[in-house]
Amino acid sequence: MAIKPLEDRILIKPLDPETKTASGLYLPETAKERPMKGEVVATGPGKRLDNGKRGEMSVQKGDTVVFAKYAGTEVEIKNVKHLIMRETELLGVIDG
Description:
Blueprint: E1 9-14, E2 37-43, E3 64-67, E4 73-77, E5 80-86, E6 90-94
Antiparallel strand pairs: 1-2, 1-5, 2-3, 3-6, 4-5
C-alpha cells in the first residue's frame, strides 16, 4: 500500500526517540516521549493558490524535519507508523 499526500500535506516517518540519556542511562519504554523529528517520505503537489497555480513545497523527500509533539495524524503503512500533516505544521528542517 502506498499513500500519496494531497495538496500541502506531507507523509513523515518518525525517527526513533533516544533510548539512552547523555549520561549513559537507558530509558524504560514508559519514559520515552513521542518523536518530534522525522524523515519526509512523500509530499503532495502543493496548495492550490487563488490564481489557480500550485504553491511550491518547502520540503522534499529525504529531508529531516521537526514538528510539534502531537502534530499530524498517525497512519500505519506495512506495519510502520507514519504521520500525515500539513506543511504549516512543520517547525523546521534539520540541515546536515
